Amino acid sequence: MSSGGAEGPPVQPSRAERTGAANRRRRIEAIVAVVLVIGGLAFAGIQLTGDRGGGPSPTPSPSASGAEAPSSMLALSITGTSNALLAVVGSGGGRVPAAVVTPPGMTVIVPGQGDATTQAVQTLPGASMRVAVSNVVGAWSAHYAVMTLGGFAQTVDRAGGITVDLPDIFILGAQALGPGPTHLTGAQVGSLLRQRSDDAAARWAAVLQGFLAVPPPVQPGDLTEADDVAAAIAALSSAAGAAAQAVPTEEVGGTATIAAEPALDQLVGGLFGTPVPVRTLIQNGNGEPGIGEAVATRILPAGFRVVLSQNATSFDHATTQIIAIGTAHLPEAQRAKAALGVGTVAVTQVPSGLADVTIVVGRDFRG
């Protein structure tokens, strides 16, 4: 989110009633015009429910229902190819290890930046990549790791190669490999992941599953970036035996591929034990660059997903406003305030099909 000018129309999270990109954008514009007329607290139907917060407070991750705790998750990025190779892997909490890959070429919402392809996400610094990938899957990754494709291939060779259940025939020079379980060297894995194909997501999922069949022999030098090298390697090791699946997608307007809802949240919740994220709209009301990502870093671990981030109508907001869209979402708004550590909670009765909570960031928030 920049301090000058509003962002371009973002891709709204999918809904069954959407019929195309044009309808979706018109709907967003109408909702923003009706619900988010920002001017202090001059919202129609808004009532204050809390006091201004103090300093930041701890942000516990919400627990999923059921006996098992949510998995600990890692955002993984393999760079060095035009195909975006992004994934989350998770294990722990008594759950079976699992992995979810994001299809190359998918359009996603990057907090603070708006629409972006997964290729663009891959070029971000590791910390920003984690925020974007966590926002896509609707669950926070406690750690992140980045490897080059060359480093990934070297790790494959260190393991003696991996067995990949190829979804289709893979032509490498004069050799045809697959379909079905095929033993591949690091160089063959690199060639497979570099190729552009209609089944790129299935190939990436198959390779990652083969890579995680046993604890991968990742060494600290294999990672080009990580928030905690030892924790990242431990996360990959503990994910051994994970089955990998691709994010379910749908085409919008014949021009964009986006995540299919609610299928994605059902998949992620079933695999990792995470709750359905709270749909959240972020508006930059203080003009500070990068504020959308800073807010997302605070609220995503508390069970939120950013569905739209944009500039407010002005940058003169002294106090952060956290607005529940209906009293049913008041607990979520209060949880967002606890995560941010600042702000005033309010409720509007004006219905919205876009978000459950709106956050207008004021000067009291320091990322």
Characteristic terms for this protein:
10 helices, 6-stranded mixed β-sheet, Alpha-Beta Plaits, single chain, alpha/beta, 367 residues, 2 domains
CATH fold title of the largest domain? Aminopeptidase
Q: What would you say the CATH architecture of the largest domain is?
A: 3-Layer(aba) Sandwich
For the CA atoms, what is the radius of gyration? 21 Å
- The coarse silhouette is elongated
- Overall mean pLDDT: 85
- Listing every helix as H and every strand as E from the N terminus to the C terminus, the arrangement reads HEEEEEEHHEHEEEEHHEHEEEHEHEEHEE
Q: What structural class results from the helix and strand content?
A: alpha/beta
Total domain count? 2
Q: Assess the beta-strand content as a share of residues.
A: 25-35%
Percent helix among the residues?
25-40%
Distance between the termini: 13 Å
Strand tally, please? 20
Q: For the report, how would you describe the main beta sheet?
A: 6 strands, mixed
Read across the widest sheet, the strand sequence of neighbours is 1-19-18-20-16-17
Description:
By secondary structure, the protein is an alpha/beta fold. It has two domains: about 130 residues, Alpha-Beta Plaits, CATH 3.30.70.2390; about 200 residues, LCP protein (Aminopeptidase, 3-Layer(aba) Sandwich), CATH 3.40.630. It is about 30% helix and about 25% strand. It has ten helices and 20 strands. Strands 1-19-18-20-16-17 form a six-stranded mixed β-sheet. A hairpin with a 5-residue loop joins strand 2 and strand 3. Helix 4 runs antiparallel to helix 5. The chain starts with 20 loop residues before the first helix and ends in a 6-residue tail after the last strand.
